[in-house]
Amino acid sequence: MEDFLAISECSTDELTGLLEESRSLKALYKAGQRDLCLAGKTLAMLFEKPSLRTRISFQVAMTDLGGSPIYVKPEDIGGIGKREPVKDIARVLSRYVHGIMARTFEHRTVIDLAKYADVPVINALTDWSHPCQAMADVLTIVEHFDRIEGITIAYIGDGNNVARSLAFAAGKLGMKLVVASPPGYELDSASMETANHFAPGCVTQLDDPRAAVADADVIYTDTWVSMGQEDEKEKRRKEFAGFEVNADLVAAAPKHVKIMHCLPAYRGFEISDEVTESPNSIVFDQAENRLHFQRALLRKLMS
Ligand code: CP
Ligand code: NVA
């Protein structure tokens, strides 16, 4: 494993290895111990979009391992691919740092960074995928259910970057993903095919949220308005009507169902405040596990 750009590019063994490593490093750090395997190493963190969880959890993970993170705003470097080509940024950074993580609009940007960099490149969210999120989510599921195999996730809402990474995780790790979206917002058919190629029938697309949650172990949702889609907010709010994860929808699921959201959550849109705050909600465990997964990822790629 040289880079971490998409779950679809990783083997099942690599993913399960990362999950095991996440759990053991989590236990180590919870016990107050440290593994300074990245002492003297530096990670450049390029962000074209805002972030709370990703930025802070990567900075903490890097510091935890003895390394140094450098946060780079696009305006600091005149924009990614604007002041100079992405391929030049990749090659220059490779002369200074030991790893690059990037949150970009176009997925092509992280592919080009990885192509031209001599150091590992990590996808910290693109319009196409959010693999660190999906792996932290799987880690959270393992902790709550003590298994991954056979878990059914009902994903309600936009067939976006988060849904796509969950679909690939389902295909690689033996879960089922049932996506329910309004017309025009389904998970794209190429991604469905990719996931179902890994494990036939692991991902299905419906238009009825109640049918989707009927056998769910987990109900998952994400914003209806991803970063960069702010101009479509009013249109999307109307078109996603009926897809809110609220108490009525949760009542249609099995009693043991857990509620997941990658955050930030727009309460009263894709999820109600009541459901976000309910005892079944594990959204903050997910947020915490970003740190534990990424510590393991940095260790694997950079040590
Ligand atoms: N879930 C997530 O990636 O959050 P941030 O946008 O705050 O990093
Ligand atoms: N789908 C959202 C995820 C935010 C963590 C976005 O891309 O903005």
From TrEMBL:
Pathways per UniProt: Amino-acid biosynthesis; L-arginine biosynthesis; L-arginine from L-ornithine and carbamoyl phosphate: step 1/3
Task: Tell me what this protein is called.
Answer: Ornithine carbamoyltransferase
Which reaction is catalysed here?
carbamoyl phosphate + L-ornithine = L-citrulline + phosphate + H(+)
Q: Where is the protein found, in the record's own terms?
A: Cytoplasm
Q: EC number(s) of the enzyme?
A: 2.1.3.3
Q: Which Pfam families would you find in this protein's record?
A: OTCace, OTCace_N
What is one GO biological process annotated to this record? citrulline biosynthetic process
Q: Give the InterPro entries listed for this entry.
A: Asp/Orn_carbamoyltranf_P-bd, Asp/Orn_carbamoylTrfase, Asp/Orn_carbamoylTrfase_sf, Asp_carbamoyltransf_Asp/Orn-bd, Orn/put_carbamltrans, OTCase_ArgI
Q: Name one GO molecular function term.
A: amino acid binding
Keyword annotations for this protein, in alphabetical order, are:
Cytoplasm, Transferase
Q: Name the source's superkingdom.
A: Bacteria
Q: Which GO terms describe its cellular component?
A: cytoplasm
Q: Where is the Aspartate/ornithine carbamoyltransferase Asp/Orn-binding domain?
A: 149-299
- Residues binding carbamoyl phosphate are 103, 130-133, 262-263, 290
Q: Which family does it belong to?
A: Belongs to the aspartate/ornithine carbamoyltransferase superfamily. OTCase family.
Residues binding L-ornithine, per UniProt: 161, 222, 226-227
For the Aspartate/ornithine carbamoyltransferase carbamoyl-P binding domain, which residue ranges apply? 3-143
Query: Sorted alphabetically, which NCBIfam families does this protein's record hold?
Result: orni_carb_tr (TIGR00658), PRK00779.1 (NF001986)
Q: Give the top-level enzyme category.
A: transferase
